[in-house]
Specification:
By secondary structure, the chain is of the alpha+beta class. The protein is built from 17 helices and 14 strands. The strands form four sheets. A five-stranded mixed sheet has the order 1-4-5-13-14, sandwiched between helices. A four-stranded antiparallel sheet has the order 6-9-11-7, sandwiched between helices.
């Protein structure tokens, strides 16, 4: 058995056995299979896919490539959330402390940005001092102390996924359902949770651009989770425009903190309350899904969610003074306002284009070893459905890269489509996926 043989076999559309998949994963981890051969294997998988037995075996191998954490000594049902990635998708930052403030332990292991999407780890690491690289023992202590921990993959947890995740990001092999399913579920099931809530995004700014593909992914993820003994519920949500107003790491931290303090950012908080309500319900801290949503709203109103966020930042070494006074954070060297060339209504905002613009400004990575500028990003002044006058500000960009300012400004302006009539409202949360199947969303 050789890597070349298995790459050719997958390229030709054949099904690989669990033993053959193990050979590829073990070889990649031990460096006997180099990046260029794994890249070829990933691309072959992207085009030829995997059968259900292959996907199940692949996920199980990734899961057991490292340690599966035992959190049974910590009281309560542990519940986490995972998003398939979007633009301006800062939901984990307000969501995790809200759910923890409701009494549900939240052990959250996240990733860095992938493709055009931002990563929760990149946002957290924009907080000076915030340590996302805890050991398993520190991870357990943090969740016992605070009821919440937010880290990246350690060397012990799903190491095969961690290494493959970085390679997929720069080889255009992200949008592949078996690879996404294996990555998400191996990481999440290894962290010691009892239940999982999934946010599967669809639309222009999502990896699953069509609703049908989102349903396919959601069904695969929910099926894997429930079959492996972790109660799993998914929601298919719209990503045809960025979430909230902030795109970029520190900018999104600031917007998240404002939400925790009670600022009404409608789409961010609508999605946060839906996901949080289900997490609180699955964590048995609410009798119904609707009651879970109300509990989440209450801990924002009484300030407990914001206090929980301060606790986790402090517990993981972050500078809480900058959370309380974000105006003290360093500012970008350059900024430019992007204005509308005509009057009308915002008919659409191209999330994918804005995600790539954020990368060119320094808010994301084009190569594995790129260093992110936490200050860089875009602030939207208008959202879909808003009225705009000619010359009015659509967005403001921030960067330390002078050469990126003008090209990014042109691309940002082109990402806004202005129409004469106000567009019809589209739902943010489209469908719910669970053991019973797929159905239209309703609380």
């Amino acid at each position: 058995m050789t890597a070349n043989e298995l790459i050719r076999k997958k390229r030709n559309g054949a099904e690989l056995s669990a033993g053959e998949l193990k050979f590829m994963i073990d070889g990649f981890l031990s460096d006997t299979i180099p990046d260029y051969q794994m890249s070829a294997f990933l691309m072959a998988t992207y085009f030829k896919g995997m059968t259900k037995p292959e996907t199940d075996a692949f996920t199980n191998l990734m899961l057991h490539s490292g340690e599966v954490v035992d959190l049974s000594a910590i009281r309560g049902l542990k519940v986490d959330k995972h998003s398939t990635g979007g633009v301006g998708d800062k939901i984990s930052l307000p969501l995790a402390p809200i759910v923890a403030a409701c009494g549900v332990p939240v052990p959250m292991i996240s990733g860095h940005g992938l493709g055009h999407t931002g990563g929760t780890l990149d946002k957290l690491e924009s907080i000076p001092g915030f340590n996302t690289s805890l050991s398993i023992d520190e991870y357990k202590k943090a969740i016992a102390d605070v009821g919440l921990v937010m880290i990246g993959q350690t060397k012990e947890i799903a190491p095969a996924d961690k290494k493959m995740y970085a390679l997929r990001d720069v080889t255009a092999t992200v949008e592949c359902i078996p690879l996404i399913a294996g990555s998400i579920m191996s990481k999440k099931l290894a962290e010691g949770i009892d239940a999982l809530v999934l946010d599967i995004k669809t639309g222009r700014g999502a990896f699953m651009s069509t609703y049908e593909r989102a349903v396919e992914l959601a069904t695969a993820l929910v099926g894997i989770g429930n079959s492996l003994g972790t109660e799993t519920v998914g929601f298919i949500t719209d990503m045809n425009q960025p979430l909230g107003h902030a795109i970029g790491n520190w900018l999104e931290v600031v917007e998240s903190v404002e939400c925790l303090k009670g600022k009404e950012v409608p789409d961010v908080m609508e999605l946060t309350y839906v996901l949080g309500g289900m997490m609180v319900f699955l964590g048995r801290q609410a009798a119904t899904f609707a009651e879970g949503i109300q509990r989440c709203k209450e801990v924002v109103r009484n300030g407990k969610a914001y206090e929980k966020f301060l606790q986790v930042v402090k517990r993981q070494g972050g500078d809480t003074s900058l959370i309380e006074r974000p105006d003290r954070f360093p500012r970008s060297k350059f900024f430019q306002q992007v204005v509308s060339a005509q009057s009308g209504y915002i008919g659409a905002i191209d999330s994918l284009e804005l995600g790539f613009c954020g990368i060119t400004l320094g808010a994301g990575r084009m190569r594995v070893d790129d260093v992110i500028d936490p200050k860089a990003g875009i602030m939207l002044e208008k959202k879909v459905g808003d009225h705009v006058e000619e010359g009015e500000i659509l967005a403001t960009l921030y960067t330390d890269k002078r050469e990126s300012v003008e090209p990014a400004a042109v691309r940002i302006a082109a990402a806004f489509r202005i129409v004469p009539q106000k567009p019809e409202h589209s739902p943010l949360v489209i469908s719910q996926v669970d053991k019973k199947g797929v159905r239209p969303f309703a609380v």
